């Protein structure tokens, strides 16, 4: 049986299609994991920002000097609580301050720092520290 030139090309190109498909799939899978990691980071960050905002608003209305209750609002979404906090936050990750007391610059500040998030992307997998989150509510007008 004599093979023509076109049939030989088809046999050779069949193997190269498999190699190209495997390489493209590998790149696609890495990009998909990267998008997942980025989306997870954005979700955790935005959820923590919203929880800090909610706690700061609650603290401004109730008692801006009660740092323990405001910290618990960040951790448990209630003024009292115990156990694992929101996204495994601990009280050490939350700082509540009242700068400018007695002035027009009086504020309630809630700062989240040192919290962790996990990445699963190849070569980047592991636990990383999230960026500092700071929320401030002006209280000078309320005096």
Biggest β-sheet strands, sense, barrel: 3 strands, antiparallel
Measure the end-to-end span. Answer: 99 Å
What is the CA-based Rg, rounded?
Answer: 27 Å
- The SSE order reads HHEEEEE
Estimated structural class: alpha+beta
Explain what this protein looks like in three dimensions.
With 143 residues, this protein is an alpha+beta fold. It has one domain (42-142). It is 47% helix and 17% strand. The chain contains 2 helices and 5 strands. The strands form 2 sheets. The chain has a 3-stranded antiparallel beta sheet, with helices on one face. A two-stranded antiparallel sheet has the order 3-4. A hairpin with a 6-residue loop joins strand 3 (116-119) and strand 4. Helix 1 runs antiparallel to helix 2. The model has no long low-confidence stretch (mean pLDDT 88).
Q: Can you tag this structure with a few keywords?
A:
143 residues; alpha+beta; 3-stranded antiparallel sheet; two-stranded antiparallel sheet; 2 helices; rod-shaped
Helix and strand layout, with pairings?
Blueprint: H1 5-61, H2 67-76, E1 94-97, E2 107-112, E3 116-119, E4 126-129, E5 133-138
Antiparallel strand pairs: 1-2, 2-5, 3-4
Helix pairs in contact: 1-2
């Amino acid at each position: 049986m004599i093979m023509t030139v076109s049939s030989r090309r088809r046999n050779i190109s069949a193997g190269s299609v498999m190699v190209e498909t495997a390489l493209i799939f590998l790149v696609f899978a890495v990009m998909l994991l990267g998008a997942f990691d980025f989306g997870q980071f954005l979700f955790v960050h935005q959820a923590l920002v919203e929880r800090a905002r909610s706690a700061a608003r609650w603290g401004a209305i109730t008692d801006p000097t009660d740092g323990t209750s405001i910290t618990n609002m960040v951790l448990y979404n209630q003024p009292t609580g115990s156990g694992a906090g929101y996204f495994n936050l601990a009280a050490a990750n939350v700082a509540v301050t009242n700068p400018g007391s007695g002035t027009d610059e009086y504020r309630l500040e809630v700062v989240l720092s040192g919290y962790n998030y996990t990445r699963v992307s190849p070569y980047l997998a592991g636990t990383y520290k999230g960026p500092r989150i700071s929320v401030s509510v002006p209280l000078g007008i309320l005096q």
